[in-house]
Amino acid sequence: MNPSTVPSLSRCLASLFYESLLLVAIMLVVSAALTPLQLVLGRDSVLLHTLIQLAVAAALFAYFGYCWTRSGQTVAMKTWYIRLVSADGQLLRWQQALARFLIAAMLFIGLPVVSYLGWQRSYGDHPAVKWLALIWWLLPFLARYYDKDKRHLHDRLAGTRLVLLPKPTRGGKA
């Protein structure tokens, strides 16, 4: 792969920051839509919390899956001229989108949570426990420095890659 077609880490992180703002909005809308269920199930209902978590996960996958399979770009990726494609350069199929979503969820949520629970069991509420768990967030990004194609770990595992698109030329005055 041509190194110039791979987006830089700073571009990927900027896109991720922008994406996180959009994701928070999606999560708030889904949570607000399910809030009336508190009247039926009760505020501290395990079922309510489980339904909200499943609905949020489904909404996030619907957003990512739709964007990745339709154009290869989320709103943030369009802003930063990044496209997600399969290893052969084609748009993702829904199965690939689901695989990437689940792998990324395990790397960015699963490993830090399991790490935190393990460290907390051993060291209690020591402040370093949180930081040790958060170190796992670096793993998918740092893997690009060891990958021959400069792919993030979740892209390597899912069989996808990010491509840097050229900036469009502006029409108008020359």
UniProtKB/TrEMBL annotation:
It is a multi-pass membrane protein. Its main location: membrane. GO terms for cellular component: plasma membrane. The keyword ATP-binding does not apply. The chain crosses the membrane at residues 12-34, 46-68, 97-117, 129-146. It is found in: Cell membrane. Keywords: Cell membrane, Membrane, Transmembrane, Transmembrane helix. The keyword Cytoplasm does not apply. Residues 10-159 form the RDD domain. It comes from the Bacteria. InterPro entries: Pra-immunoreactive, RDD. PANTHER family: PROLINE-RICH ANTIGEN HOMOLOG-RELATED (PTHR36115), RDD DOMAIN-CONTAINING PROTEIN (PTHR36115:SF10). This is RDD domain-containing protein. It comes from Chromobacterium sphagni.
